[in-house]
């Protein structure tokens, strides 16, 4: 479905030319849980599809998404509370790199997508291959 530019919702999704050409997808690449995993996965898939649609709708502007794995941030600590250490230990044991990502690593991926002019319509997974386990 193509939204007409006169639609009342257009200002909510229109991106000015000066906007950085990347979108951030907060994809959780873990199975759905009682912490809202299914809704996060659905929202992430929608964001990735939205970016691909924008590539065609608003060409030649570029749109990409970043799909980070579990990232060691203060938000993770607040979300998991006292169970954080046990969760991280169990998760990192299963991960190929045996560690969580950092906010700096996710930010570097965003900078890469912004600086590489040929990247368009892609989702960059910054999860240390966590999506494969």
What's the structural blueprint in terms of helices and strands?
Layout: H1 10-13, E1 23-24, H2 37-57, E2 65-68, E3 71-72, H3 74-80, H4 84-94, E4 101-102, H5 103-115, E5 123-126
Parallel strand pairs: 1-2, 2-5, 3-4
Write a short abstract of this structure.
This protein has about 130 residues and is α/β, with parallel strands linked by helices.
Account of the 3D structure:
With 133 residues, this protein is an alpha/beta fold. 42% of the residues lie in helices and 11% in strands. The chain is built from five helices and five strands, in the order H-E-H-E-E-H-H-E-H-E. It has a three-stranded parallel sheet, sandwiched between helices. The protein has a two-stranded parallel ribbon with strand order 3-4. Strand 1, helix 2 (37-57) and strand 2 (65-68) form a beta-alpha-beta unit. The protein is elongated and about 45 Å long.
Q: Flag low-confidence runs.
A: 7-32
Total DSSP helices:
5
Largest sheet: 3 strands, parallel
Strand content: 5-15%
Q: What is the overall pLDDT average? A: 81
Fill in the keyword field for this structure.
single chain, 133 residues, alpha/beta, three-stranded parallel β-sheet, two-stranded parallel ribbon, 5 helices, 5 strands, 42% helix, elongated
């Amino acid at each position: 479905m193509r939204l007409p530019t006169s639609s009342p919702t257009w200002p909510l999704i229109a991106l000015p030319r000066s906007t950085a050409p990347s979108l951030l997808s907060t994809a959780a690449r873990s199975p759905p849980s009682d912490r809202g995993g299914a809704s996060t996965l659905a929202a992430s898939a929608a964001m990735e599809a939205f970016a691909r649609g924008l590539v065609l709708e608003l060409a030649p502007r570029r749109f990409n998404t970043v799909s980070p794995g579990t990232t060691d941030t203060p938000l993770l600590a607040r979300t998991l509370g006292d169970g954080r250490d046990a969760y991280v230990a169990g998760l990192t044991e299963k991960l190929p790199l045996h560690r969580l990502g950092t906010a700096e690593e996710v930010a570097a991926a965003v900078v890469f997508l912004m600086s590489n002019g040929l990247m368009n319509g892609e989702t960059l997974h910054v999860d240390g291959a966590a999506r494969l386990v």
